[in-house]
Design brief:
homodimer; about 475 residues; alpha+beta; BirA Bifunctional Protein, domain 2; Rossmann fold; eleven-stranded mixed β-sheet; five-stranded mixed β-sheet; 25 strands; globular
Chain lengths: ~475, ~475
């Protein structure tokens, strides 16, 4: 229950974000530095993300499993790139049951290694492939600069892992999961994303190729919102994952991994929110509709609650929360639920009951302009239409915003200007050295090389060398 | 795919269990001693347990949240009984991000302490109570003697935590959750349970009172299948969880916790399984029905698969798996799915199609006696009736078995005999010293003091002192 106003989003985006996460009770700081507690409102949102993703995964033949939290340190060392990438971030268990361990165990930062170990036992023949697994869990990466949801020492995610008979199948699955993330982001969360390949320096430690979906936040910074990696046969060689092919020859499997985390909740907040607070996308919001009954006397109360009882079947089709808290004014409740981002508010008072109607208010267009009187008889259709409209409007607004802040500078001087407040879509030579110089100079990094390319060739925005691909550069979370 | 026969359940129950878990691909051993990998078939079963429990929790107002994995060591030390109980079992992180930590962090063995810490921030007023939270996660307890599902170093569970304004509410919630566990066990898993209170020596470290549901396994040993604890104000005092009551006085809250874990999967295996393998309870089985199409020629195959297509809408009402694997005989598939415990097998061949019928076979009554021809027109009803029958039959069989192996010895000599192969339902004085002597002598411990008491008084089966309650003694997992 927020009495003080939120910091303004345009004045202080970072403080607006932090305050909003705390006040809306999505999450709180945990006692261990860099860890967070996800509170019921935040976890209900995550459960809806999970359901939307999980059903998409399962529709492609993926099944869930659970691999252990603790991994022998030696496992990480088997894949050279992998250990170089993760060694600085590890939490290490050295004592168990009161005794010093012979071999330290790491709390998983990701599970390629332990899954690789198990697969070397399970995969014998081409008949065992493809093997399509996913797990929902948390992982720990020691982070110095943390921020609720966006970068925490422990975070929640799903990590998918698949094994295939060859390069084409692995690449196909990698791209398929990227497409699923994009579909989820746009059609569930109303967050427009660019699908693209990560540069060599930005790819996953141990991957052959990494892909990501990239979204523009409300301050124009980029956020990597999901990643999908073709691991080649790197982990298969490190963990001896081999199968007998149809010609009875031993072959290394090809593997992939792909993940989307609670970071995505940060994206939802930063893409859609406004000065009043959260705006949650209708298909994922814990409460799609909040009902605020309005009454002054006991008689009025009985009248209003009686009408809501008669509407219960219609309302049950949605995730509805009825705010029956005593001692709070309707105005206070309106503000409270606006701050917490419920897409549709349903107001009902004695006059509405007399007219056999309710008032629906849209969170994304505050004030009178978004209000609509809907007859009892058309309630479910009216709510559904409004939820769909809100989804479309949020997606459109975010797409327009991204377009308005995505620039195509014609030289490096202009590039330096535009990345101050937006993304740069430019020809890039692909060299890591060039990328590093740009980053040191402007704090903008390559976000991805979009899959959707215009064709043709150009000159690198920085070094002027020939370039075959356009890349997105931006400051990023 | 098991070619070798399972060890016989009656000859070697322990080895039957271990082999069955591995061969049915419920779980596998992980590289870290005492840890397990839950494979897709096992995890799908756990997901069904989760759904059945989660909906029951939510119906009582509980919401899910997520508290961190890592807990400062000092938190555990605040509640004296708690740290004494858990200190020997801790996994301790001493290195993070490459540096030695100033304060070691423990991997949660349970979350009362960190939740207590957060609640001291969140709970201010009686209006904040009751606070009803749950989380699905894994916890780590260093175990020396481990067994897949039953006792593993890391295990998966839900841990519910609630805070209340006083003793009655806390006790009420503790018992309510115990009842939910019993309802779940009996009506979802077909596992009959006894609800009861744990003795002083068997209660949770830090609890005022602990309750459990106890189930009899197929070898007559007992298994504690779920626990619910009234924590009194012990954790509230340790973590300063206080609220202003309606008279504006500061009061300590009363808290509860309750958990049910992947151990329950062990109970399902050991209660229902037989020499052929698993028998999964119909309401939780990953596949309720396995379809084995029978055909010799391509024409026959087209005929059979065409019929299945026409039945798709009926079949979709259940969790159905169609076994279309090539190169395996129907007989092999029958054995394979029997071993994996699918409740109903649906056979369909060309003759069945001609007669517009399928053959349904029950897993719990192997052989011809359980087979039933069901017309296409009555398929869904036929399957539903068979699933319900199997549930009832499994529950009845387990109840009869428990009854046949629960004894009421009249003296301690007889007691020593009966606990060799069953439970003893006896008057007990309630003294820990007496309990310890019995355990050292017979390896039977108090499982619980059943809530359902006959009334009256008696003499302790061991020491002969006056006894007000009857208790269940048994050897336990």
């Amino acid at each position: 229950m927020a009495e003080e106003r939120l910091p303004s989003r345009s004045d202080n985006f970072a403080e607006w974000y932090n305050q909003l996460v705390l006040r809306s009770e999505l999450a709180d700081y945990a006692p261990v530095r860099g860890c967070m507690v996800i509170r019921p409102y935040g976890w209900a949102l995550w459960e809806n993300l999970q359901a939307a993703l999980d059903s998409r995964f399962k529709a492609t033949g993926v099944t869930n499993a659970a691999f252990p939290l603790l991994i022998p340190m030696s496992f990480l060392e088997r894949e050279k790139q992998h250990v170089e990438g993760f060694a600085p971030e590890l939490a290490v268990v050295t004592i168990g049951g009161g005794e010093k361990l012979e071999e330290p165990l790491v709390v998983r930062p990701t599970s390629e290694t332990i899954i690789g170990h198990m697969w070397s036992k399970w995969i014998k023949s081409y008949r065992d492939l493809p093997l399509l697994l996913n797990q929902w869990n948390s992982v720990v990466r020691w982070e110095m600069r943390t921020k609720l949801f966006l970068r925490t020492m422990e975070f929640y995610w799903q990590e998918g892992h698949t094994a295939h008979a060859g390069p084409d199948e692995a690449e196909g699955r990698t791209r398929q999961m990227l497409d699923i993330y994009a579909d989820f982001a746009e059609n569930e969360a109303a967050v427009p994303v660019v699908r693209g390949q990560k540069s060599e320096s930005e790819k996953f430690a141990g991957a052959l190729r990494s892909y990501s979906i990239e979204a523009m936040m409300g301050d124009t910074r980029a956020l990597q919102a999901g990643t999908s990696h073709n691991l080649g046969d790197n982990f298969a060689r490190a963990f001896d994952i081999r199968y007998l092919d149809k010609e009875n020859q031993l072959q290394y499997a090809w593997t992939t991994s792909w993940g989307l985390s609670t970071r995505f909740i940060g994206a939802i907040i930063m893409v859609h929110g406004d000065d009043q607070g959260l705006i949650l996308p209708p298909r994922l919001a814990p409460h799609q509709v909040v009902v605020v009954p309005i009454h002054k006397s006991d008689d009025e109360r009985a009248l209003v609650m009686g009408a809501l009882d008669r509407l219960a079947d219609e309302l049950r089709r949605f995730r509805v929360h009825v705010d029956t808290r005593d001692g709070l004014t309707p105005g206070f409740k309106f503000n409270d639920w606006e701050m917490r981002g419920v897409p549709v508010r349903l107001e009902i008072g004695p006059k509405d009951v007399a007219r056999e109607q309710v008032m629906l208010a849209r969170r994304d267009t505050p004030g009178k302009q978004g209000k609509l009187a809907v007859p009892f008889a058309a309630l479910a259709d009216g709510i559904q239409a409004m939820l769909d409209d809100i989804h479309t409007a949020l997606f459109q607004r975010a797409t327009d915003f991204r377009q308005a802040h995505t620039h195509t500078p014609s030289d490096y001087a202009e590039f330096r200007q535009v990345v101050e407040d937006g993304w740069a879509d430019v020809w890039w030579c692909g060299r890591s050295a060039c990328e590093t110089e740009i980053k040191e100079d402007t704090r903008a990094s390559t976000r991805c090389i979009p899959l959707d390319q215009p064709g043709g060739t150009g000159r690198c925005i920085h070094c002027g060398e020939p370039a075959e691909k356009r890349a997105l550069f931006a400051r990023a979370y």
